[in-house]
Design brief:
Helix content is 40%, strand content 26%. The chain contains 5 helices and 6 strands, in the order αββααββββαα. The structure holds zinc ion.
């Protein structure tokens, strides 16, 4: 992939770190926008969080730690949270309880979708 492929074809690059190796996730801006728009249409109350999740996909590393377990950097990049089996350890998730779609869960769901994988079990509505 050349720089022109990225810029000229509106490609975005997410970073999925797996077993210490960085896996580059390439998708179009349209694909990411589509996930945000579809998720927001189906779940209007999630719109703000879906947009923050898209920001995390674009600018923060998401590390795969094994089966259904991910370390997701926080929006401000100062912390990271473990998302495991559809649960997150962030304060937003803990406050709202089981099944809450925090931005970290949504970000993992988006990156997995953009990477051409099947949606996660108990995963995000994107
Ligand atoms: Zn979270």
């Amino acid at each position: 992939m050349t720089k022109c492929d990225i810029v000229c074809n509106n490609m975005i690059v997410g970073r999925l770190v797996s077993h210490g190796k960085e896996e580059i996730v390439v998708a179009t801006i349209e694909a990411l926008r589509g996930l945000v728009e579809r998720g927001s249409r189906d779940n209007p109350h999630l719109m703000g969080r879906l947009e923050k999740a898209a920001f995390i996909v674009l600018l923060r590393p998401i590390e795969s730690l094994g089966e259904s377990t991910y370390r997701v950097a926080s929006e401000d990049a100062l912390k990271s949270y473990i998302v495991q089996n559809g649960q997150c350890e962030c304060p937003d998730y803990v406050r709202h309880g089981n099944g809450h779609f925090c931005k970290h869960r949504l970000a993992v769901g988006m990156l997995v979708r953009l990477n051409g994988r099947k949606p996660l079990k108990g995963g995000a509505p994107v």
